[in-house]
Design goal:
The chain has helices at about 5-25, 30-45, 50-75, 85-100, 110-125, 130-135, 145-170, 200-205; strands at about 175, 180-185, 190-195, 210-215, 220, 225-230, 240-245, 250-255, 260-265, 280-285. It is an alpha+beta fold and about 325 residues long. The chain folds into two domains: about 5-170, no CATH class; about 175-290, Metal Binding Protein, Guanine Nucleotide Exchange Factor, Chain A (Beta Complex). The radius of gyration is 25 Å and the shape is elongated.
Length: about 325
């Protein structure tokens, strides 16, 4: 089954389940349309575990901003300004929503807007919802609670639909390669960093390179006989790492270790989903190059992370 068909079947089946729950046993506790917005947000932000966190944080933040907008309209002097007061409340809260993107957990502005719009729509269309008592109550009559829960449930359904699609296609946890040679692993990597070394810069042509180490036996390669091998470091041709490319199309497939300790992928060049393998630190940063020290909050080292232990040779 192709990936598109598998995902279509998965979303169709789970969409029916979600609809039954929202219109049946969970009526009043789950808005199906808000759940579908959360579901769609999950896939639009990457469709993986990191996307789930981003979807929930931004969707709910948007809900909170819309709730604050409603309270400004109802419980401050803006209420006496009519349409102008509503416009000011919207302007202030949307400004805050966008500025909050300076915070990494809230930097998916469209996802926050989805939460804001869903809440505003619910408040405008639902009798009694735009009321101070309803908006301050600790019940599902409060849009802050109802819309937030609905969008979170939708995001969780999104994650479940992606997992189910993976089962239907028999897909692996991590996979890449080209149309001729495929690589995959069901095991997590042993190291994942952004590399600043001159060798990676020379080979990839990138200022920095996202590098992922797997235990040698954890990264499976089909059609090994179709790999073209060359030294990774031209200045050290007898070094342990070989750059392996497809002999048919030339696509870089992986770095292989002659000592059988590791196999290495560069996600953005070797067919992998970069968002599913986020780098956790900066490696081989050399201040003498004059490059600015990374300031994204991740640790910065002049080599590999201090606690990294090389696997034994195979």
């Amino acid at each position: 089954m192709s990936g598109l068909v598998a995902l279509s079947v998965s979303i169709g089946v789970l969409g029916a389940v979600a609809t039954y729950l929202a219109l049946g046993p969970l009526a009043g506790f789950l808005l199906i349309w808000a759940a579908f917005i959360g579901w769609g947000t999950f896939f639009s932000t990457g469709g993986d575990t990191a996307a789930l966190k981003k979807t929930i944080s931004c969707n709910v933040f948007g809900v909170v901003c819309a709730w604050v907008m409603a309270m400004l309209v109802l419980a401050t002097p803006l209420s006496g300004l009519g349409t102008a007061g509503v416009a000011i409340a919207v302007g202030l809260t949307v400004l805050g929503l966008c500025l909050a993107a300076h915070i990494s957990a809230l930097d998916a502005i469209p996802a926050s807007v989805f939460g804001y719009a869903a809440t505003a729509g619910y408040l405008l269309q639902t009798p009694g919802a735009l009321d101070a008592d309803a908006l301050t109550g600790a019940s599902f009559g409060n849009a802050l609670i109802l819309v937030s829960v609905s969008m979170i449930v939708g995001a969780l359904f999104g994650l479940a639909s992606g997992k189910l699609a993976g089962v239907l296609t028999g897909s692996k946890k991590y996979s890449g390669g080209c149309e001729h040679i495929h690589t995959y692993s069901d095991s997590d990597p042993i190291d994942n960093h952004t590399c600043h070394c001159s060798v990676c810069k020379g080979v990839t042509g990138q200022d920095t390179t996202h590098v992922v180490f797997f235990n040698h036996n954890d990264l499976v390669v089909d059609h090994l006989d179709q790999l073209k091998r060359q030294p990774f470091n031209a200045n050290n041709p007898d070094g342990p790492l070989e750059l392996c490319t497809c002999s048919t199309c030339g696509t870089p497939i992986m770095l292989d270790d002659k000592e059988n300790r590791i196999r290495v992928i560069v996600p953005n060049l070797m067919g992998y989903n970069t968002e599913s393998l986020p780098a956790t630190y900066h490696a081989f940063y050399d201040p003498s190059t004059g490059d600015s020290k990374p300031a994204d909050g991740r640790p910065v080292y002049e080599g590999l992370r201090p606690d990294f232990v090389w696997p034994k040779s195979g």
